[in-house]
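Sync notes, pocket subgroup
Present: LS, DG
LS reminded everyone that the earlier model was apo-only. Rerun requested with thymidine-5'-diphosphate included. Inputs:
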Amino acid sequence: MTGRFITFEGIDGAGKSTHIEPTATALRTAGRTVVCTREPGGTELAERLRDMVLHAAMDGVSETLLVFAARRDHIGRVISPALARGEIVLCDRFTDATFAYQGYGRGQDLALLGRLEAEVQQGLQPDLTLWFDLDPQVAAERRAQARAADRFEAEDVAFFERVRHGYLARMSGAPERFVRIDASQGRDEVARRVAEALRERLDG
Ligand code: TYD
């Protein structure tokens, strides 16, 4: 039995993180074994790299290499072993975020990102990606009410317009993998859409 790899994506403030724990609880209630994790992060090394990526000044190439270094460790130690055990892995962000933020947001070479993706993932891709899509202006207003901004959250609306465009481009390249969720709706309606997407994609 092979597991299922499900990723949660969207710009900062879209609300994706709110839906991961309830999703895990629902799947566990249905008898599945679930691992919840995040990127950058999910292992001791990757969490240390996350801290640097979110808070230390660096250029876009270093940022890209660090998120892929974190990803390599995370895949090897956590994601692949869990999938091999037949578990469901719920991951808060994955490589679509690298294309959206480093590629479209920061202007890093998409061909380089593609080469790193192929090298680090060796064919591994999410079975399902839930993209919480929200207007960047609305997301900025939501973020303003939350905690102190990290290096990405401090970016302006134009940056998040580019990031959103990046997610759209990734979805266009792999439409069968993505479900776009309108994150401007209330939390209950978003939760209903998430549950519906999982029912459709996991039972098949
Ligand atoms: P986020 O997932 O929003 O976590 P939190 O809810 O704790 O703020 O923050 C992670 C940040 O890292 C987010 O701003 C996007 C960024 N990021 C990248 O730039 N590239 C990547 O490859 C990943 C996985 C994340």
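DG: Residues 147 and 153 are 10 Å apart (CA to CA).
LS: The longest helix spans residues 60-84.
Action: DG to write up.
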